[in-house]
Amino acid sequence: xxPMMKPALRRAWRDRQSVQxxxxxxxxVTVGPLDTATGSLIDLLDGTRGLDLLRAEARTRGxxxxxxxxxxxxxxxxxxxxxxxxxxxxxxxxxxxxxxxDRLRPDLASLSVVHPEPGGAMRRLAAxxxxxIQVRGAGRVGALIAATLSAAGVGRVEVxxxxxxxxxxxxxxxxxxxxxxxRRDAAARRLVRRSAPxxxxxxxxxxxxxxxxxxxxxVVVAPRDGLGAxxxxxxxxxxxxxxxxPHLYAGVVEATGVVGPLVVPGSTACATCLERDRxxxxxxxxxxxxxxxxxxxRAMPSACDAALATVVAGLAACHALSFLDGDLPASAxxxxxxxLPSVRWRSERIAPHADxxxxxxxxxxxxxxxxxxxxxxxxxx
Length: 381
What we know:
Order of helices and strands: EEEEHHHEHHHEHEHHEHHEEHHHEEH
Strand order of the largest sheet: 7-6-8-9-10-11-12
CATH topology of the largest domain: Rossmann fold
Helix content: 25-40%
Structural class: alpha/beta
Largest sheet: 7 strands, mixed
Radius of gyration: 24 Å
CATH class of the largest domain: Alpha Beta
CATH superfamily of the largest domain: NAD(P)-binding Rossmann-like Domain
Number of strands: 12
Number of helices: 15
CATH architecture of the largest domain: 3-Layer(aba) Sandwich
Shape: elongated
């Protein structure tokens, strides 16, 4: 191990005997008591020295045997250490792509703050390269989600949509004015390629055993008509439920942004759970849904301004990445909404419905969520 203080966390002495590592309440840790000589070792934890050299440095400072190991142990237990050589073969492969690593360095720093184990950040970042996802919708929200996930290192981002790019689809970071009149799916694919930190892995690098396509890890449903995210139609999701494919809804309708629910088949509430619950509480809802989904609406502009689309796409991408990295985000069994002009996020719980065939209601409330997301080994192929 070549211990390195996590470079994303700022350090400052609180007093003569304690060091605070980190600024924010979510991640700051105070280490102490520390004498001056022991504290000086912290500056040497830059990833260039192994434990033997650190022990020798400790001896030159007059510190007793075992002090360097004890300090490293304390810092590791507090989640403050990284190891620039750890992470496994996939991480080593990514390190051999310095241009990609330079593009992804802020993402790597963020992952190192969130995940305490040495090498965990690089392992997750490398694992993203083997992930295959779909974004269904290439409007203002969907195109931004696809671009953001590609920029974050997800190796295979497929975008599905029909028709041709319209002026109203253009938004900073998404489809451009040059894409107007071009097929939406083709324009979105170009956007994904432009956003990627390097070329996607060859299919042979990520193929399933036996040579097939890599498994679909997540579908993000971000329809241009945000009603499909606010009141999602359960029918298109039946195949995903049957195949066990997680899916996340996101969109904007009537100046209201929604992110969630994240549906993990058999474990969290699905679109059918949502629809049955709302219909039981509002008997008129089924009548309204039939009219909303009838397809006989007059043409109308989508109330999805650029700022709100950007906010929703960013939050949806955060939830998707959290799940893909092996965690369970707050959009599981919940939906997040934000409306203009107050721009105040609110969370609405979505409980699995007892009569829904998805089976999520049968799971125990104390279930272990650590295995819900794709495992890092699976993502790495």
